[in-house]
Amino acid sequence: MSSILLLILLMAAVTYIPRLIPLVYIRADNIPQKVKTFLSYIPYAVLGALIIPGGIFGIPNKPWISIIVLAAAALISWIKNSIIITLVLCIVLAWGLQIL
Amino acid sequence: MIESEKIREPVKSRNSTVMMGLKDAFPIMIGYFSIAMAFGLMVKNADLLLSDGILFSTVVFAGASQFMALNMLTTGAGWISIVAATFLLNFRHFIMSASLGSKLQKTCNWQIPVIAFGVTDETFSVTMAKEGELTPSYVMAVHFFSWASWGAGTASGYVLGFFIPDALGSSLGMGLYVLFMSLLIPEIKKGRKALLVAITAALLNTIFGYVPFIGSNWSLVSAVIVSSLIFTLLNTQEKGVANE
Question: In chain B, where are the structural domains located?
Answer without folding.
Answer: 2-179, 191-244
